[in-house]
Amino acid sequence: MAYDFKIKVADQEIDREFLSSVSSIKLDQYVDRHHVLKIELHGLGAEADLSEFSGTQEFSGFLGETISLKVETDEVADEPRPITAMEFIGVVTEVRHENTVDMINSITITAHSPTNVMDGPLRNKLYHDMKASEIITQVLNNHPITVGSVASTEAQLAHCVQYRESDFQFVMRLAGLSGLFAYYDGSEFTVGKAAASSSDVELTFRQMLFEFKMGLGTRTEKFAAQSYDQVRKEVYDGETSGSLQTSISGLAKLSHDASKNLYPEGSFVSGLKPDSQSSLDKSIESAREASVGRMVHCSGRSRDPRLKIGACVKISGMPSDFHGPHWIKSVGHRYIRGEYTNSFTCTPLETAYPTKRHQRNPLTDIQSALVTSTEDPENLGRVKVKLEWSDGTTAAEPERWLRVMAPHAGSEKGFFCLPEIDDEVLIAFEHGDPDRPLVIGALYNGVDKPPNDHDAGFDAAQNDLKLFRTKSGNEIYFHDADGSETICITQPSGNTITLSADGPKITIETDGDISLKGANISLESTTGDITLKSGGGLEAESTMDTKIKAGGNFSSEGSINHESKGGAQISIKAPTAKVQGDAMTEIKGGLVKIN
Predict the structure, then answer these.
(1) What CATH number is associated with residue 487?
(2) Is residue 260 part of a domain?
(3) What is the DSSP letter of 420?
(4) Residue 335 and residue 38: Cα distance in Å, rounded?
(5) What's the CA angle centered on 403, arms 401 and 409, to 5 degrees?
(6) What is the CB neighbour count within 10 angstroms for residue 513?
(7) pLDDT in tens, 120-147
(8) Most distant CA atoms of the chain, gap in Å
């Protein structure tokens, strides 16, 4: 028996006649990429005989169907009967027909792991107040893939954005940020840390194991990072300290010790956005683990098909430093001309950490949004918005408060002017990160047009009008028409304060009352007159002395009567005095003295 391959397409087992034409089977499996299966069939025929082209429709009908590959073998020691050593379930993604003049014609059937379907359309979606493990589970459940165990993550993510990422990219990124592997093992998708399992295999050198290599390298182990908390206005600093959470032994410890001596200085980790000191420390520790995971790289060749992604392999028949266990990261199965072999890569289990950071490309573009709320619970001058892109069903409305850029901002000072609800604003992203949006300005559009149809007039060519108007119509405008430059503050009620270069002059006008109040009030005309005019009465009153002085003539007149009264005494004094009445002059008192 040795090795027996069984293939099913759409749950239908392929017959032996089909299998007899199989010239090669190649299956490449990776812990951080899609698995690829290629089955190549060869046929012979004469040029005049078109029989070699038969079955093309049948094979083409495999496209999009589920395919399974099983390998049974009786080569495994200590097994009393043949066992199913390997199983792969995938989806047929390509059928290639190749016909050549040398009369060797072939068909290549290519299949990928179900993760390939997850890596199709790019999506935009928002998640709020969920753990990374909960988000990953929700995404995986949207696809026809068998989900194994998903390790629970601790941190609750207040905001998490999937933007222009496929579901596969998103899941891999979230898992990596949580320090977890996310992989398809051939039959189910698992998210978790590297660990020993019931699928572990022991290989003996010179029996099932042909070759085993171990490469020891060096990497920096010290890392530092900073993160800014916009609510507390604090910068968090962190750096690696102490030892790894797991102990390292054997040859791997040599790499570990050499790395510490070779790289005494820390490396800066960028792009982190933790909102607390503890989460920053965890992110730095994840960076160190990823670096340690690259220090030792092992590879080998065997003929045991039980080797499986996410399982461990132990080595016997070699020095103890090679024994392991080693965590398997990739396997390449080959069945060519009736012979089966495989190649694999692995790393010591104690240093098996995720090494590939699945990062999304920085979001360098800016986009518009509509304001949905200004009631910031922290009173930090932030707003909520509805973004123009959607998650496939509704417009994206992040459940978070966005800071608003201002010309000047500081403690209890600055330019404070929030956009109104339903205003269109422009959104940018700090460090190109979709998880860090902020408002950098506001925009007019075809519905919300600028207030340039103004009573003061607006010459677009001269661009002579600048104004600020609130939603109730209060406004300040600057009119730069040559020769009649004006600054004006107005209200819909008609209240107006105007500073005009025409004169120049200042005008205060209202249909209501004007009130001036202060500790001291001074009115001074440096070159001209001061005129007080009332449409009704005019009254001046002081609680102390009242003085009116003229550098020239002083005149007071009443159209009917003129009355001057002193509570104690009236004194009129001048070098020359004249009292005249055109009709009658009367001087009256209890005692009248003249001279």
Answers:
(1) 3.10.450.190
(2) yes
(3) P
(4) 11
(5) 145
(6) 5
(7) 899 888 898 899 999 999 999 999 999 9
(8) 156
State the Cα–Cα distance between residues 1 and 294, nearest whole angstrom.
40
Same domain? For 396 and 479 the reply is no
- Kindly state whether residues 210 and 343 are assigned to the same domain: yes
Question: How far lies 225's CA from each of 141, 271, 561, in Å?
Answer: 35, 9, 88
Q: State the virtual CA torsion across 247, 249, 254, 259 in degrees, nearest 10.
A: -10
For the record, the structure tokens of 24 come out as: 């090669």
What secondary structure, in 3-state letters, does 456-504 show?
A: CCCCCCCCCEEEEECCCCCEEEEECCCCCCEEEEECCCCCEEEEECCCC
Q: What is the DSSP string of 172-199?
A: HHHHHHTT-EEEE-SS-EEEE-----TT
CB-based contacts of 485, cutoff 8 Å, min separation 6: 478, 479, 500, 501, 502
What the block records as the tokens of 364 is 């360098």
* 388 within domain boundaries: yes
- Is the model's pLDDT at 45 over the cut of 80? no
CATH code of the domain covering residue 384: 2.40.50.230
**DSSP one-letter string for 332-399:** EEEEETTEEEEEEEEEEGGG-------PPPP----EEEEEEE---TT-SS-BEEEESSBSSSSB---S
Are both 220 and 347 inside the same structural domain? yes
**Kind and range of the H or E element at 234?**
strand 234-239
Percent of the chain with pLDDT over 90: 39
Beta bridge partners of 191: 150, 182
Do 273 and 394 share a domain, yes or no? no
Instruction: Express each pLDDT in 71-124 by its tens digit.
Output: 888 777 666 677 778 899 999 999 998 877 765 678 899 999 999 999 989 988
Residues 215, 338, single domain; the answer is: yes
Nearest to 159 by CA among 57, 241, 268, 273: 273
> Helix (H, G, I), strand (E, B), or coil: what is residue 41?
strand
* Same domain (yes/no): 229, 283: yes
Could you tell me the residue range of the domain that residue 471 belongs to?
Answer: 465-509
Number of domains forming the structure of the chain: 3
114: closest CA among 95, 89, 133? 89
